[in-house]
Design goal:
The chain has 350 residues and is of the alpha/beta class. The chain has helices spanning 28-41, 58-69, 81-89, 106-109, 134-137, 155-160, 179-184, 187-198, 205-213, 235-243, 253-261, 287-293, 311-322, 325-349, and strands spanning 17-23, 47-53, 74-79, 119-123, 127-129, 146-150, 170-178, 218-220, 265-267. The protein has a seven-stranded mixed sheet with strand order 3-2-1-4-7-6-8, sandwiched between helices. It has a two-stranded antiparallel ribbon with strand order 5-9. The longest helix is centred in the last third of the chain and has 25 residues, at 325-349. The radius of gyration is 19 Å and the shape is globular.
Length: 350
């Protein structure tokens, strides 16, 4: 059972919030929803957004700029196209539905930030902020490079990258950077050297790199800052059944229950229900995303992702509602493990 040591400061004034997202043009509309969720949940706070631009069109940049400025917040676009082109040249793998390199851009942002920034929160475009981020920014990172939430990938993935059962493996969708420490330790150079040496032949690409290169210097933060749905509704017992993670290397039952009941950030990864922007997917868990979506300037022109759902997956969705929870998790685990094992094998072949 993992005991977190997280320091909060009560009764403080609104401190500035510094947010980073990475996007190319394919992810611009999703970035807009994430931005809307940050602003909606932190209206009184000074916010400065840094958008790592790996190919956003001028039109979409104008839309994002207006969205932020109209709410009295600040936004800057940082081109990382040249840096990502170099990654392509050395054979680093693209990621996701759009075969994008945008996620790697986060490695470059710290070294070009203004000196007044002490902490930076990176969030993936598929996240939704539901609560104030003030307490998150007051966490004392001490001598750690990052603060992050423990992932719910199966334990065999940790083994695949050389981790032990007791090692913590974190999701990279929400990262609180210790800017000073990152610069002092010259982390960009260390990560670039690792990518060149390994060619990023990992099944979870940039996330694996962060876990490997920063191992021992990532502070576990409360799971409310990375809520996975529906998994958190199953509690620790269900999550451990799904993942085979060690109980000592995961959160407590009350920490997961609190996160599920009051999520600060939801990460809409692929699940049994799909994702909110899939045209054929519906779930009560998508409500908070759609609340932010309605604040997005893309809400009228949003292009949903076409997703063909197989009969087998439809049956899995039905099983979620009809089967006892433990039986469903066993069924879901079997299917998910098969997909992820294939991903591990393919990564080694590349």
């Amino acid at each position: 059972m993992l005991n977190l040591i997280i320091l909060f400061v009560e009764g403080f004034d609104m401190r500035p919030i510094y947010i980073c997202l990475a996007a190319d043009d394919n992810y611009a509309q999703l970035a807009s929803v994430a931005i809307a969720s940050v602003i909606k949940s932190n209206m009184q706070a000074p916010i400065e957004f840094f958008i790592l631009d790996s190919g956003i069109s001028c039109k979409n940049k104008e839309i994002l700029n207006k969205q932020v400025k109209d709410k009295g917040k600040e936004i800057s676009f940082i081109s990382v196209i040249d840096k990502l082109e170099k990654l392509k040249e050395i054979g680093v793998n693209s990621q996701g539905y759009y075969h994008s390199f945008a996620a790697y851009a986060r490695f470059y942002v710290i070294d070009i930030l203004p000196n007044y920034i002490d902490k930076l929160l990176y969030i993936d475009c598929d996240t939704c902020v539901c609560e104030s981020l003030q307490k998150l920014f007051e966490i004392n990172l001490r001598d750690n490079l990052l603060g992050a939430v423990i992932d719910i990938l199966p334990n065999f993935h940790k083994k695949a990258i050389g981790f032990d059962d007791s090692d913590l493996y974190f999701n990279s969708g929400v990262l609180l950077f210790n800017v000073k420490k990152w610069k002092e330790d010259n982390m960009l150079k260390r990560i670039e050297e690792h990518m060149i040496r390994m060619r990023c032949k990992y099944s979870f690409h940039d996330q694996d790199i962060i876990n490997i290169v920063c191992k021992g210097y990532i502070l576990p933060i409360a799971p409310c800052y990375m809520v996975f749905l529906p998994e958190y509704s199953w509690g620790v017992k269900g999550i451990l059944q799904l993942t085979n993670l060690s109980k000592e290397a995961y959160y407590t039952e009350i920490q997961i229950a609190n996160a599920f009941n009051k999520p600060a950030i939801i990460h809409y990864v692929e699940t049994v229900f799909g994702r909110p922007w899939y045209n054929s997917c519906k779930s009560r868990y998508f409500e908070k995303w759609f609340n932010a979506f309605r604040e997005s300037p893309f809400s009228e022109s949003f292009e949903y992702v076409e997703r063909k759902i197989s009969l087998r997956h439809r049956m899995l969705e039905m099983a979620y509602y009809l089967f006892p929870r433990r039986c469903f998790i066993a069924l879901y685990k079997k299917r998910k493990d098969k997909v992820l094992l294939e991903r591990e094998i393919n990564a080694k072949k590349q």
